[in-house]
Fold:
Amino acid sequence: MIFVSTISAVIGSLIDYFIGLKGTQAITKYRVLGRPIFSENQLKIVASWFTKYGPAMVFLGRLIPGFRTLISFPAGAVKMPLSKFVAYTLAGCAIWNTLLIYVGYYLGSNWREVANVSHYIIIGTFAFIIILGLFLVLKRKRRKRLTK
Structure:
């Protein structure tokens, strides 16, 4: 089960990677409510993050529900080396799938009780990501103010 789920996750991630790779021009040209989905400048920022933290973002992104699906698109958009992308995706997905399968086996028939609590974990994860993102944005703005 671990092998099949991990290979399936890597294949799905590769599809998203190639959509990001080939769809970069489309997301800068198409407009929603008069604005591009992503500007060229936003893509440059993401590219600099991926240059600096790409492998870690891909690996850790695989361990965060919700984010694990989205991380492949920017990795493709900034042309992260495919071998690195696959290696870190494989490692992160293998850990995640092993954990989920083990927890599922361990919980057995008590899975409904966990399902009732899991949405709190997901909400907490998203809250953490949002707070971290806000912190980084504020830190960057402060740094820019200090350098002026």
Remarks:
- Residues 111-147 form the longest helix (37 residues).
- The chain has a mean pLDDT of 84.
- The helical segments are 2-29, 40-61, 67-70, 72-77, 82-107, 111-147.
